[in-house]
Each structure stands twice: as C-alpha cells, then as structure tokens.
Amino acid sequence: MAIQFARIEYVSRSGGGNACRKSAYNERSKVTCERTGEVFNWKTKSDLSHHEIMLPEGVSEKFKDSSTLWNAAEHAERRKDSQVAKESVIALPDDKVITHEDRIELSRRYADALFVSKGLAAQIDIHAPHDGEKNWHAHILVTTRGFSQDGESLATHKARETDPTIRKGYIKEEQNPGVIWTQIQNSYFKEKGYDLEVESTGIVAQIHMGPVRMRGHLTEVVARADLLKQANEEAVRNPGAIIQKLTEKSSIFSEKDVDAILIKFVAEKDRQALRDKIFNHKSIVSLYEKNSQTETGLFTTKEVRSEEERLLRFAAKVNEGKSKFLQEDISKEKGLSAEQDRALKHVLYGTKGLAIVQGRAGTGKSYTMNAIRESYERSGVKIIGLAPTHLVAGDMIKDGFELASIVHKFLFDIKNGKTIVPKDSVFMVDEAAMLGNSVLVELLHVARSKGSKVVLFGDSKQLSSVERGGMFDSLSNIYGSAVLKEVRRQKIEWQKTVSEKLGEGAYKEAILALDRAKAIDWKYTREESMASLINAWSKNHERNPHHSRLILANKNIDVDALNRAVREIRLVKGEIDVKGYEVQTQRGKEVFSLGDRVAFTMTDKKIGVQSGLLGTIKTLDDKTCVVILDSDKEVTFDPGKYQGLKLGYASTIYKSQGKTIDEIYVLHNRSSNQKLSYVALSRQAKDLKVFVNTQETKSLTHLVSQISRDSRKISSLEFMTADQLSQTAQNQNTQLNKIANMITTVVTSLKDKFYENDEFYQIKTPVQAMTGKESSVKPIDQTPLIKEVSDIEDNSLPNQERTSVQETLKKYRLESSFGIADNKTIESISALKLTLQEINKSLGISDNPTETLQKATFMAMQIQKLATQHQSMTQDQINRQIAVAANLWMEHKDTALGQRYGFNNDLIFMAHKQIKTNDKSMDLNSSTKAQTLLVEMTGITKDMPIGLEKIAGPTQLKLNKRIQEIYKDQQAVSRQQEQIRQLQRDQQKQFDR
C-alpha cells in the first residue's frame, strides 16, 4: 500500500547525535568519526536493500564516500549544540506491482526535489522489511551545508534557505514533505501506468457503534509503528540520546528509570554494557542530600543543572529590577475578600521586579488577577498577558486583557522583531506552574533585558508542565508568594471541604468527606465502574439538560472508551442524529452527529477556536460543521479541512485544569497522584461523583494512599553535587578560593549578559495544523448494539418472567414467607436465576429453567428468613451471603454435600455462618470462576470492607457487557494509536523547527 508518511528531523549534538553514527547505521556499514575517535559498526544488520549518495552538480566525487562526507560535516560544526545533519524517513510502497527499481527511483526523486536540487548532499539507504512485514522505507541523510564553489569542501554557512517557510502558523503546503512525497508517488504511478494512489494519513479505521473494525488504514499503522521501532533501535544504542530522553520531562532520574528504558528497548545481552556507558557518561551528575550529604540514588545532567541555575540567576536579576509602586486600590470596588486584597497589595505595593500569587483551585485567582490588571491599567502601565496554552490565553482576553498570547508565540515574536515591549510594562503570566524550564528561562531573560516586571499566577499543588519543569515551586520558596486558599467555586459544604482538604494536603479527610456524602461509587471491575458512571451521566443529563458536565479520566484509552459509550447511549435515546458523518481527525477517523459534544484539539485563528474548547454540533454535513461553543459563540468550518475535532463527553484530567464545570464524573485510576486528584476533584460547581473499582483500589485506605502519592517535579537544585561537597569540605575562606569564586561569578555574569539560546528559537512559530490534502467526509448510518432505550432505562422484568416468578411463589406457597411478592423480591429472584444459569453454563450443565427458577426462589426465601431472624442484617449482608454461597458451592460441588444439595439452603446457612463470624472483615478477593460470574452478572462487588452494591437487573448487565466490548476494542485501537501519537509528536516537532 502506498502511504503519505514522510518526516524530517535534525541530527543534533545537543541530543547526542553524530552524523557518522547515523550514516553507519543507515548504510549498515563501519565508519570512524575522526572528531571523537569513535568507531560505529552496523555491518551485522542485513536489511540494506540499496545505498547511494547523491551530490549536486559540480561537487567532487570524493564525497560519494560516506566516511569522507560525514566526517567533513562533523568537522564543519564547532558548537557543542550544532545540528550536523538532517534526516528524512519515507515509507515506500509495498504493492506487488512495485519493483526494487521503482523504490530506488522514487527515493531519488524525493531526495532530489527536497535536497539535492537545492545544493545539498543526500545519502539514500533503503531498508527491506523483516519477514512477514511490509514496512519498506528509506532513510535520507542530508547535509545542513551546501558546497564551496569549487566543490571540494562544505560551505562556510548553513543552508537555512532550504528550511520550510511558515506562514500564519502553517507550513506552506508546497513545502510540506508529506504533500511533496504524495505528489511524487502519484505522478510516478501515473507515469508508469500503475493503478495506485497514495492514501491520506489516516491512522485507524472509524470508531463507530459496535466493535471497532481494524481495517482500511491498519497497514499504515503497522508501517509507521515499525519505523518508530527502528528509530528507537538506533537511539537506544546512543547513551546521550537515552540521557536526553530521561531528562525530557524531569530534571532528575534514578537507576530504576534507566533500567525501565533498557528493558523496553534493548536486548538483555546488551543492557549491562549500555547501562555502564550511561552512568559513565561525561554529562551525568550524581546528587546528594544537602543535610546528611549522603547519596540519594538520583542523577541529573550538567546541562539540566546549568539550565536551572541560569533560571534562578535570571529570576534574581528580574527581582532586582525597580517596580513602580502603585496606590490604586480597587479592592472595595471589586468586592475582594481579605486574602484577595492581600494578594493584590502583594503585587501592586511591592517594589521588586518579580511577584508570585498562588491560587488554590476555585479560590478566585482569575478574578484577583483581573483586579490587579485593572489597577495597573488605570495607572497607565502596559500589561502583557501570557499563558502556557491557547485556551488559557483566550480566557484572559475574555476576562478583559487587551493583549494575551501563549508564551512561546510571544517569545518568537520578540526574537523576530514582530513585537515591541513598552518600557515599564508588566508580564502577567497565568497558570505559570505549567511552564517548562526552557520557556521560563527565555521569558525571564526577555523580562530582564526589557526591564519588565513579571507577575506569576499559578498553583504548585496542581498539574505542572509536561516538559521538564517544577521551578515555579522553587521560585515561590525563594521569593515568597501571596496564597489564596478560600474556596469559592463550590457552594455545597462537603464539596468545599474536599477541595480545601486536598489543597492542604489532608487527603484522608478529603476522602472521608467524599465517602460521607456518598460521592464514591464502588464497583468490582473498571468496566463496571464505567457502566455505572455512564448510567449516572445519562440520568443526570435527562434531569438537568442545561447543566454542563464532563467525565474525567487519567488515561487516553479510558477517555476514548467513555466517549464512545456515552455517545452510543445518546444515539439510542435519540438525543443525537442517527445519521453520522465519518471525519478524518488528527487521531484517525471518527464519526460525529448533530447534537454531539465535541472538543477542539488544534488552535485555528481563522476559524476562531483554541485547543481545549468544548461545544455542541449544531449543523453537520459533508462540507459544513457549525459548533456552538460553551461560551455561546458559533464557529463554522469545513470538516474535510479542519482535523482538530474529537468527542467531548470525556477528557483527560490534564486538559481539564483551569475549567469550571457544573457536574464532574471522575473515573479513578490506580496511577492517580496528588496533583491529578486535586485537579479532578475540584473542577465542579454543582456536583461531583467518583467511580472506583476494587480490582485496582481495595478500600478507602487504599484510595487515600493512591491519591496522596507525591507527584511534584523536583529540581536538581534541591540536592548537592560531588563538586559542591568537595568545596564544602575545603576551607572556603582562603584568599585563593575567594579569588576563584570571584572570577567564576564575573565569567558567569558575562555569559548571562550575552546569553542566547538559538536552539530554542529553531521553532519559528507553533504549527497549529497540518492537514495535508483535504480529506473526504462520508455519511454513516449508525446502528447501536443496544437496540432499544428500554435496555438502558427500564429495570423491570418482562411480563412473562414476572408471571413465572409469581406462579412459582404461588405454587410452593411462598408468598407468606416474603410477606408480599413485591417488585424488589421478584427482581432479586430473577437475578439469582440468571446467575445460576450462567454458572450451569460455565460447568457444561444443561439448564432446566423451571428447576433453576425454583432453586433461585428457595434461595431468596431462605435469605429473607435469615434477614427476618436477624433484623439488624443490612442489604449488603444479605447480598454478601449470596456471593459467599456461590463461592462455597463451587468449592464443595464435588463433595457429598454439593452433589446432594447444589447451590441451596444448606450452603446459604453456611454462608450466613461465615459472614456472621467474619462480619465485614471478610474478603472475597480469592475468587473462583463462579464467584466472578456472579459479580459480572449481578453487579455485586467483592470488596467486603466497603460493602456490596445491590443486585443489578438485566439492564445493568447489558450495559456492563457493552462497556466491556467497547473497552476491549479501544485497547486494540489504543495500542496502535499510542505508537502513532508518539510518532506524530516527533514529526510535529520537526515541522515546528
């Protein structure tokens, strides 16, 4: 299949890259790097199908030798962070009509069009797929410099004119590698008379009602995943690349973190040697406790340590700057509380250049920030609003900021001369804790050079940056901060208590408050929790259709499954149009209908949307989609061109930060932690419900331990290095040491003064959308697997079943035993009957419906008798007896007792005795198949310390099963999607550069 995939990335020394290593790997050859003395040997790999080096006209033939070309490239670069080469990887067609010569010619045409025709050398290496696979692909390694006029050496300047042009946040389509590769292939196929056409970059088949069918684009998924796997294979043999990966999202790492990467990517026989190389690498720095000076088992790198130290130096310089003292007091006018007034005065009355305000979730931080902004503006001070995301920046503009943008764009515009910072202006940064270290360094550098004051608003208790970060906390500790603690978002007392206790770090008290409010829903499996959540969502949606509501989960797979399940229920109920449209999105093909809740995942200024916005589809056809945003604004776009749409019923917790929603439904996950829990459990304004499964969380105590896990990003500066320990051990008061320290300070100061980070600004402007060619939008007739609304809503038994139960009661004269054959009793008998049928089926026993119903009736009668005898017996205890009895029957089914009585009264009595003896401490986690079936078919959970749910009727059973199907399908999709997402992220970064 011919596919569009093409990516370009740089080989950079800052990431441990080496042009000679890359060349040797691609060519499966042996190359010695003259600059480092390293020998790279990949001759043992046997999948090379073709190798050649293409040169521009007039260039010396000596550069056709790989060693000569790439050693010249290495020698030409002097900086330690230089980009020594760039590499493009393209997926080659694997169709039967395609020959080896075709693949070579296609690769040549691509290399010539993008590189050789522009004066660059290109090494082409075509790799054949492994047995049974189809991922033919080519690596094209390209010089970053052209050649001298005589063709005997590389040029003295980089060939920057070959980089793609970006306009209004988009790569020009004619320069997009994927688009160019598509055009080259289609043109070649037409020229050769092949009946082939390149497919657009779909990822997986549509996600529709019913099990996902992995069709259509699955071949492409596998091909792209294989390319990613091969890229990893090369990278993990480079210690520098592994170290860079370890510090990508955290300033520190442990031996355990290193081992995790090695186990994932490296063969066991190679691990120890590579592990030794990593810990002996020149960039590694061991960390020690400051007080005890003992080893921590933690590490960082010289580069990361330098970055953090530079950040603190820049912050100190900003703080030294003079700030205009303001006496403009609008506290009374704005109705600020005492603590909000203190925060306002902390910023306005302070004469230092750096001020920090910490606002716990729902405490009115945004309102306070706007009061501060208004005070400055009334005094004639120019305010520049900044944020880590488009969504937050958009909210700042809604709240009254004249200027607000994402920090990245602001920095790029400053660098490119597009923005002029007025004198004595103030940078007000919202959600500052979400800024990574590299961005914060640049922002403080700009503020220092422009003489601007910086005011950081954020919360160290909530989620921080995805990238390496955590310095907001350090800055707060050093320079102090005003803190807002009084919760205003929640009006209901128990919800305020939960939010406040989480903000204080009192996790046990927060969970107990949730438990007392009956806001925790316990089920046995994840799927059962999902089914219960969706049922609650659906019922509340009917009761209060005008409330905003959002489902939160930690993992993407859970979010996707929940989105699909909610949508299916809405389709069944007729709340969304049965006619859907299959739309190509960033994440593959999805089906949308009129009335669907959607989320935007790409910022597009032309349309007027930011990533993270939520809305409802008002109009949808193959050419037009109209969405009413939650702000009541309408946006219109072509669904065939804009690919940043996804279902919006559920979201990851990370993306919910900063939002206020009426109703929140949280699917708890065992990987939860302090920050995730705090954000998830503090978004609601009216109602909150948490759904927990006992497979992952055994009890309330276990839940407390999970949500209280420390998840903060730790700075390496919280620890000492070996050099610092050595200096401490020596006498620092000697004249020689004083002089040495003075020299170091002067040199560092000069470096800071002339500091420039060109690598950061390789991203000219964020790429907001990469749609490739326009995709088609197809109408889809949707058929949900739950056929009728009654499957979800109606918990009553069919009349035939009800009559049968009543007849059995009458036949055996049991009505008096129950007092009255009410609906609840009949439902319980039916559930027991269903359980017995499933157990018989699992054991291969033919079912006699009448006998099974009789047995279920006797069981219900006996349990009711026990409940009458022991009036203190709760419904939980009654249900528990059923579960224990089922387990006992399985344990004794081969004994005389089991063979004589089966699942009947004697075992019920035994169950009662066991429960009475063990009371609520009894645990059924050592389950047998019968018990598991009982749980699955009745909704009874196994978690005894917490208590059991009431027996579910047939309705809940169908929903549980449907959720299991959806989740199983989503697992298959997500395994493929996650690989593709990572590849897309890598590809996006390269297009950004």
TrEMBL record:
GO terms for molecular function: ATP binding; DNA helicase activity. It comes from the Bacteria. Residues 19-174 form the MobA/MobL protein domain. Keywords: ATP-binding, Conjugation, Nucleotide-binding. It holds the Pfam family MobA_MobL. CDD domains: SF1_C_RecD. Belongs to the MobA/MobL family. PANTHER family: DNA HELICASE B, DNA2/NAM7 HELICASE FAMILY MEMBER. This is MobA/MobL protein domain-containing protein. It comes from Candidatus Odyssella acanthamoebae.
